[in-house]
Amino acid sequence: MNKIVKNDQVVVIAGKDKGRQGNVTERLSNGKLIIQGINIAKKHQKGNPNAGIPGGIVEKEMAVDASNVMLVNPATGKGDRVGFKILEDGKKVRYFKSDGEIVGA
After folding, report:
1. Band of the pLDDT at 105, cuts 50, 70, 90?
2. What is the domain-level CATH number for residue 46?
3. Is residue 34 situated within a structural domain?
4. 36-56: per-residue pLDDT in tens?
5. 63 and 39 Cβ atoms separated by less than 8 Å
6. Does the pLDDT value for residue 13 go beyond 70?
7. Nearest Cα to 64, choosing from 99, 105, 104, 16?
8. Domain that holds residue 21
9. Which of 21, 60, 69, 87 is 20 to 30 A from 3, alpha carbon to alpha carbon?
10. DSSP letter at 105?
């Protein structure tokens, strides 16, 4: 189980987009995340008429390392550390370290 998963609301804590929030759209296998609207780069793309892809300069969301983001606690609206605990029924869940609330509950 990962501390940050797809569709989590996160805040960037380091880098050029520090302080901005977004949703995780994809988690890559190398420990990096694609976050909606964060770390935008301009890519020069060659067109492909057969596939219907236009050429030109396109904006693309680049990966951000998972260590540079924190999960947003909905109670406070700020970034919070996340831990794991096992409930009485044996289920493993994520929880916010500041207030002990279960993530997504």
Report:
1. low
2. 2.30.30.30
3. yes
4. 999 999 999 999 999 999 999
5. yes
6. yes
7. 16
8. 9-75
9. 60
10. -
